[in-house]
Amino acid sequence: MFTEPPPPVDVSKLSEADRAALEDVRRRLVKILLVSGGIMGLGFLLVISVIIYKFVNQPPVAADFAGEIAVPTGATVLSAALDDDRLMLTIESGEGRSLLVVDPKTGKTIARIALKPTPPSN
Questions:
Q1: What's the domain range around 73?
Q2: Which has the closest alpha carbon to 90: 71, 77, 103?
Q3: Do 66 and 52 belong to one domain?
Q4: CA trace torsion 18, 19, 25, 28 (10° rounding)
């Protein structure tokens, strides 16, 4: 499946023209290596600088939330989830579980979704 590598070339047996050509190829490869390494280094520095820029220049988190949110009397808040301009509360009351969607800035209820249990289907 794999072939054996060729035997190493004995440079002492090469002619001066071949040695010069070999040295020229080596110099070119070293230049290509340095250029590609420099480009890779610049790319790495660019990525790191963009990450630092994004981290330092984050917009401030809006803290203008409503002071109170009306929840039905006797209800228990089981969980809460915040998404841009909506707050969803999972509440449990005497009527059962429901989802309460609220605008967190004003505290007004946008929607109330009752969760009704259904029998499993066979």
A1: 61-117
A2: 77
A3: no
A4: -140
